[in-house]
Amino acid sequence: MYAPNRKVAGLLLQRLLFYFPPDSSKTLSSYVIGDTSILGEIGVNSMKDVESLTAPPELKSESNSATFPGGIDYFICTRPGKGPILFRNEDQALLNPKTGFPL
């Protein structure tokens, strides 16, 4: 997923954490990995915060909001980087400059 709007990405992550909370053996740092700064932006700083997430607004009227604990192993959060880099020294490249295949 690429979401240029961090607020939208945070809303999606809140919903994913609500519907697919980790099983009881997981820690937050082993369940959401990578750029976890978005967790603080959505107010999730501990497993207790995940457990206290409420159903999304679109489901407030529904009496049954099924969740699937342990249904997902982990989430990886990333940000787009600065883009491709052209190396002057071909020894630093990860791809063959002629074929494009990994070295």
Topology, element by element:
Blueprint: H1 6-19, H2 28-31, E1 32-34, H3 37-41, H4 47-51, E2 75-77
Short description:
The chain is built from 4 helices and 2 strands; from the N terminus they run ααβααβ.
Structural class: mainly alpha
Mean pLDDT level: 87
State the end-to-end distance: 28 Å
What composes the largest sheet?
Answer: 2 strands, parallel
**Poorly predicted tracts of residues:** none
Tell me which oligomeric state these chains represent. single chain
Give the tally of structural domains.
1
Structural commentary:
The chain is mainly alpha-helical and 103 residues long. The protein has helices at residues 6-19, 28-31, 37-41, 47-51; strands spanning 32-34, 75-77. It has a two-stranded parallel sheet with strand order 1-2. It has one domain (1-103). The model has no long low-confidence stretch (mean pLDDT 87). The protein is elongated. The protein has four helices and two strands; from the N terminus they run ααβααβ.
Characteristic terms for this protein:
two-stranded parallel ribbon, 103 residues, mainly alpha, elongated, 2 strands, 4 helices
